[in-house]
Each structure stands twice: as C-alpha cells, then as structure tokens.
Amino acid sequence: MASLVADDLEIPWSLDFLPDGSIILTERPGRVRLIDAEEGLLPEPMLTIDEVAHNGEGGLLGITVHPYFEDNHFIYVYYTYREDSRLYNKVVRYTEENRQLADAQVIIDGIPGGGNHNGGRISFGPDGLLYITTGDAGESSLSQDPGSLAGKILRVTDEGDIPEDNPFQDSPVYTLGHRNPQGLAWDEQGRLWATEHGPTARDELNLIEAGNNYGWPEITGDDTASNMESPVIHSGMRTWAPSGAAYLNGSVFFAGLRGQSLYEVSVGPDEDLDSVELQEHFNGDFGRLRDVVAGPDGNLYILTSNQDGRGLPVSGDDRMIRVNAGML
C-alpha cells in the first residue's frame, strides 16, 4: 500500500511532478531538490536560495511547475524573506536548465510574513492561472482587510499580472478571511478546495469561490455570519493541522501535521456536501504529514514533516512516501 520514494530529506514542504515523471521538492531551509525518474534523489540541490529566512514556520515553502513546462521550463517557488528587520513572503519564477534553476523573476512580493501563519501553497488551476495561499502572519485583522495580501488566496497570471476577471478590481485577491490556508486542490468539476488551520482546533476544508469571505477571525467552525462562508467540514475540538491537499477518484485527500494522518473526504458529483464524512489513513504511522500530491501514475505522494521542531523524528526522517490510493 505504501512504499518509500526518498528519505533523509530536511523538512520537505512541497512537491510537484515534471513531465518526465521526475519530482521536484522544497526543503524549508532553502533548497530545491530533484528526484530523477531514473536516478532517484540527486545528492546536489537544483537550487539553494540564500535569501530564504528559515524562521519559525517560514522558509522555502510551495513549489509548482508551469503547465507548459515542456515549452518554457518555468518552475515557481514561494518563500519567506527578511527586509528591514521584517518578514515577508514572495513568489519567484526560475527557469530549469540541465537540472539547475536560474534566472529568478519575482512574480509577487511583499506578502506579510511572520514566525507563524505564512500560508505558502502555490498551484496552477485549470484556468492556467496561479493560485497562492497566504496566512494572516499572526495579525488576524489583516485577513479581513481587502487591501492586505495576508490571510488570502491570491490569483495572478504566470507573469504576475492581475487577471481581468478577478473579483476585486486591480487586486490579486481571489478570496479573503483566511487564517493559514496550506492546501489547494481542484476536483473533476473544476471546483477549488482549500485546507485551513484553525485556532487550536476547528481546522477547515473549504469550497472556494471567487470573491467570498471565509470568516477569519469573525467566525470559525459552525459559526455563521452574513456574507461569510462556513467550511464544508471542520475538525471540531480536534486538531488536524491540515496542510497539502490533492484530489483523486472522487475524494479530497489532505495531509495532517498535528493529526498525523492522511485525511479523505468524498466530494464527488453525487455527494451531499452538507453531510460529508471524514476518513483517516495511516494514523500515526509516519508522524507529521506536510503535503500530498496525486501523481501522474495514479498514486498519492506524501511528504513527512518530523524534523520541523514539532515532531519526533526517527532514523530516515524526513521521507517521501508513495501510496496506492486504490488500496486505501
């Protein structure tokens, strides 16, 4: 059901696939690594970003491959940096050549950062646009400020421009009212799902729609308020600490850090979203889980996060694990 892809990684945060089946991944201290489809994990990084501020939950976080990578060789990363003693986050595009990344181009910067709540997931949607999750950087009021990039899901073009059909004029903001969203996944109907860390508990799985307000810090859990969205499902008084998300075979899967599980929620076209149920897989088997991605081979690929200062690492941590979803 589960097999090892790579081990001895250092706080891996995000992964994506290249067209040839190779895997790129980030390590939070500032390295981009390559698992070659033939040779396995290469000993030398594709890139080390010296500007990365590996501070608290910050560092080198999300990574995603351009939909037309075979034509342009573009790879995007999200990371925390320091400027004038303050922490911020940015998205930077690199060009791959001969297993190296070069020619850095800033896509968006000045996203408020902090020791906690940096968001950090980036992914291209079915519309070919780049979606970016940002945390509230520890200042909850920023989530409700449409003029702040914190506590949002952002949407820009592959060059960093603002799409004409974004819900707020001349703004990259797509949705607001988020605390610390760290997972994005689109289902077969083209709907966008996002995971979000709640305050101690009340972690969320949200159905994302342009322009909506997801309530933080005004509402959490089952709370309701006019013009604010409640989650499809939340953790109640338990803690999932949900991070990366993937859609496969009618279900959204998401990685649990504190929950140490791979969570599954069936959201297929015939499902009643008012009464979805949560399934748990590998509860405690691999420790803290940071990311899950559906691979081109139909398997799920999971990153552990046991060396992030909040886990109990064992020999070989951290790891990438391949899971046969059909066996779950």
Major sheet description: 5 strands, antiparallel
Give the low-pLDDT segments: none
Q: Quick one: overall form?
A: globular
Which percent range fits the helix content?
A: under 10%
Would you list the SSEs in sequence order as H and E?
EEEEEEEHEEEEEEEEEEEEEEEEEE
Query: What is the radius of gyration?
Result: 18 Å
Number of helices: 1
User: On the 0-100 scale, what is the average pLDDT?
Assistant: 97
- Strand % is 35-45%
Gap between N and C termini: 7 Å
Report the structural category: mainly beta
Number of strands: 25
Question: What features would you describe in this structure?
Answer:
The structure is a single chain. By secondary structure, this protein is mainly β. The protein has one helix and 25 strands. The strands form six sheets. Strands 2, 3, 4, 5 and 6 form a five-stranded antiparallel sheet that branches. It has a four-stranded antiparallel sheet with strand order 1-25-24-23, with no helix packed on it. A four-stranded antiparallel sheet has the order 7-8-9-10, with no helix packed on it. The radius of gyration is 18 Å and the shape is globular. It starts with a strand and ends in a 5-residue tail after the last strand. 49% of the residues are buried. The model has no long low-confidence stretch (mean pLDDT 97).
